[in-house]
Amino acid sequence: MAAATVLSRLSLIPNLSSKPKSKPNRRTTTSVSVRASFSDPFVLQLAESLEDSLSISPSSSSSLQRIRDSSAETLLSTPWPSRKDEPFRFTDTSFIRYSQIEPVSRNSTNLENLNETHFPNAVIIDGFVSNLTIGESDLPKGVYFGSYSGLGEELTNRVSEFVGDFDSGDLFWSINGIGAPELTVIYVPVGCKVEKPIYLRYFAGEIGDQETKRLPVSNPRVFVLVEEGGEIGIVEEFVCRDEDGFYWTNPVLEVVVLKNAKVKHSYLQKESMASAHIKWTFVRQEAESEYELVEVSTGGRLGRHNLHVQQLGPDTLTELTTFHMCVNEQTLDLHSRIVLDHPRGSSRQLHKCIVAHSSGQAVFDGNVRVNRLAQQTNAGQLTRSLLLKPRATVNIKPNLQIIADDVKCSHGAAISDLEEDQLFYFQARGIDLKSARRALISSFGAEVIERFPNREIRDQARNHVKGLL
Amino acid sequence: MAGVNLQLRHGYSIAQFVPTVSSPPPPRVVRLGISPSRVLCCNLRAKIAAGLTSRRLDTVSVSSAVDSPPSSDSLTEDRDDKGRIPLLEVRDLRAVIVESRQEILKGVNLVVYEGEVHAVMGKNGSGKSTFSKVLVGHPDYEVTGGSIVFKGQNLLDMEPEERSLAGLFMSFQSPVEIPGVSNMDFLNMAFNARKRKLGQPELDPIQFYSLLVSKLEVVNMKTDFLNRNVNEGFSGGERKRNEILQLAVLGAELAILDEIDSGLDVDALQDVAKAVNGLLTPKNSVLMITHYQRLLDYIKPTLIHIMENGRIIRTGDNSLAKLLEKEGYKAISG
Question: Interface pTM (ipTM) of the complex?
Answer without folding.
Answer: 0.77
